[in-house]
Design a protein that fits this description.
This protein has about 375 residues and is an alpha+beta fold. It has 10 helices and 10 strands. The chain binds acetoacetyl-coenzyme A (CAA). Acetoacetyl-coenzyme A binds next to α4, β3, α6 and α10.
């Protein structure tokens, strides 16, 4: 068993860490407070090759593996979880199903601009009445010759409004449940496709979240991913990989919070000495670091499986479940170590705590992860 990082992975980590520290961290607090999505950071990620890490060079990608993508997610989340979810929704939720299920022609049309960062991607599954119960979505796709007419509404769409390319799930026959769901690529600017309410959030505030509205949108058959009725499986398979991305994001948040807590504990003096001298603080740090190490092993094992043939659904649910709970616990303890200062916007730990919460909810709540894990155990 080899736990060492390959030279390529180390190089990726150093490159993203350097970018994150120099260009992402300085404005992270302000962007969060102003709920400002900075597209120039996405363009910078494109220039560094991060927007297409795992895709073939033929389609504008970097030709690297999913582990490299997970490293990027982790390093970004250490300083700014919002930017990491922008990348996550773009790479593992929007681009992945196009790479996996798209035809060559669809890859050329959609994947290449996504990989090169000329287009920003989003994934539209959730609806006001279909969150955890994703199979019961109501957005309709009615076939009319060589087009489908899309009608309905999506909500909680990460990168919504800002994105150019949307992988959208709609049903061709609601009576068929999961077997009616079909996947389409919908582009910003298509007549009838518009944006609804912007959603203001507790955390990840410098990523956009918006409703999507479809009113008689004519989507050509050439934009359908896979066959009619295959959409639910496409969505679930996409989330199998996406959840690794959220696990990595949660891992990064926890690491960022621990790093801040250690630095603060060493310099903050009370009762005549640094608070790091007190066992109450030392034991908290030890528990935080231990949970982070376990999250790291689960996350990198799940993505190792993805890179080595798949079958990673249960492993990615476990990683996402454990790493997100860890992020929440570690960020909360970091705020506790900072005391009153931790509760203020002067320090990053309150942002880490707010950002950590969503990792327990999106890409399947942790209750849904337990369903996925227990079904895999019992099948
Ligand atoms: N891969 C391939 N196929 C799969 C699959 C997978 N991982 N999981 C299920 N399927 C197949 C099943 O085999 C089944 O096929 P058959 O009927 O042909 O046998 C079909 O899909 C239906 O599966 P289930 O019966 O298991 O479906 P279900 O209705 O019981 O739902 C669920 C299962 C796990 C609860 C699922 O609905 C789910 O994951 N819900 C959570 C949705 C979610 O994660 N949403 C996140 C939105 S995106 C987001 O959050 C992004 C963001 O903001 C960043």
């Amino acid at each position: 068993m080899d736990f060492s990082e390959s030279p390529e992975h180390r190089q990726m980590r150093e490159m993203v860490r350097d970018f994150a520290r120099r260009e992402v961290a300085p404005g992270a607090a302000q962007r969060d407070q102003q709920e400002h999505f900075d597209r120039t950071l996405f363009e910078r990620m494109a220039a560094l090759g991060l927007t297409g890490i795992p895709w073939s060079e033929k389609y504008g990608g970097a030709g690297a593996d999913f582990t490299s993508y997970i490293i990027a997610m982790e390093e970004l989340a250490k300083v700014d979880a919002s930017l990491s979810v922008v990348l996550g929704a773009h790479v593992s939720l929007c681009s992945w199903p196009i790479d996996r299920f798209g035809t060559d022609e669809q890859k050329e049309r959609f994947l290449t601009p996504l990989a090169e960062g000329r287009a920003l991607g989003a994934f539209a599954l959730t609806e006001p009445g279909a969150g955890s119960d994703a199979a019961h979505l109501q957005t309709r796709a009615q076939r009319q010759g060589d087009t489908y007419l899309l009608n309905g509404q999506k909500t909680f769409i990460t990168n919504g409004g800002a994105a150019d390319t949307y992988v959208v799930f709609a049903t061709v026959d609601p009576s068929k449940g999961a077997h009616g769901v079909t996947a389409f690529v919908v582009e910003k600017g298509m007549p009838g496709f518009s944006f609804g309410k912007e959603i203001h959030k507790m955390g990840i505030r410098s990523s956009t979240t918006q409703e999507l509205l479809f009113e008689n949108v004519e989507v050509p058959i050439a934009n359908r991913l896979g066959q009619e009725g295959e959409g639910f499986k496409i969505a679930m398979a996409t989330l199998d990989g996406g959840r690794n991305g959220i696990a990595a994001q949660a891992l990064g948040i926890a690491e960022g919070a621990l790093e801040a807590a250690i630095a603060y504990a060493k310099q903050r003096e009370q009762f005549g000495r640094p608070i790091a001298d007190f066992q109450a603080i030392q034991f908290k740090l030890a528990d935080m670091a231990t949970a982070i190490e376990a999250s790291r092993l689960l996350t990198y094992h799940a993505v190792w499986m993805e890179d080595h043939g798949g079958g990673h659904g249960m492993a990615s649910s476990m990683a996402k479940l454990f790493a997100s709970d860890t992020a929440m616990q570690v960020a909360t303890q970091a705020v506790q170590i900072f005391g009153g200062y931790g509760y203020t916007v002067e320090y990053p730990v309150e942002r880490f705590m707010r950002d950590a919460k969503i990792t327990q909810i999106y890409e399947g709540t942790n209750e849904i992860q337990r369903i996925v894990i227990s079904r895999a155990l019992l099948k």
